[in-house]
Design brief:
4 helices, about 100 residues, mainly alpha, single chain
Length: about 100
Amino acid sequence: MKDEFGKAVEEFEEDHWHGVSKSDFAHIFGKAFLKAASEPTIKAAFSATGIIPSNPNVITSDKLKPSKPSPTMGSSPLTQPSPIQAIINIFQGYHITEAD
């Protein structure tokens, strides 16, 4: 997909003498997707992930480890209604511990 998208962008820029804009993206992506989503490519993707033919050993256990906890907290730029604000306040006061 990456190669086909790159080719589609190059072709578009050569034909139109300007870079890809937001309004051009869907057309270019669709064209690249239709080229990349061929039957052999789809079969290779299913095989590489162990789906068809079934092969549970393709994905090793080290790739299944959970992600590490992150200390970042999100925030909303808008004031939320009181029930939601109450929940946000509870979560902001909560500190992740090793047991969590």
